[in-house]
């Protein structure tokens, strides 16, 4: 039972209700939320399901390249995330790095990151400026009411409006 009175059904193989309480399942689901948002980034922002080839090798290559990019982005944005966290610690809206901006910045500086024609410290300074420039804002302790869109509206969005990062 959710705080709104709505019944939520969780599918699990942990069937012993005495050993695994509802509170434990809630905490477990909360821990899994970070993984679910990673899948969302991979599928929605990086378009992981839009493979460059049809062979097993091509699919694996695309998958591991996307995982590498997400890991690299999380490492490179740590300083900017800390800066934005400290900057907005007392604000109602918490700031964090906009993933679309950071993926685009990394894409634009990929050669410089690995080839090092530019000193890495000055390159990181430029990247951090990009990361901090257009942050996203998140309300604290909010419950988002999701509204269902029709299949027609969703199809129109993906055909005419949505612009993928890569």
TrEMBL record:
<dbReference type="InterPro" id="IPR002559">
    <property type="entry name" value="Transposase_11"/>
</dbReference>
<dbReference type="GO" id="GO:0004803">
    <property type="term" value="F:transposase activity"/>
</dbReference>
<dbReference type="GO" id="GO:0003677">
    <property type="term" value="F:DNA binding"/>
</dbReference>
<feature type="domain" description="Transposase IS4-like">
    <location>
        <begin position="13"/>
        <end position="68"/>
    </location>
</feature>
<dbReference type="InterPro" id="IPR012337">
    <property type="entry name" value="RNaseH-like_sf"/>
</dbReference>
<protein>
    <recommendedName>
        <fullName>Transposase IS4-like domain-containing protein</fullName>
    </recommendedName>
</protein>
<dbReference type="Pfam" id="PF01609">
    <property type="entry name" value="DDE_Tnp_1"/>
</dbReference>
<dbReference type="GO" id="GO:0006313">
    <property type="term" value="P:DNA transposition"/>
</dbReference>
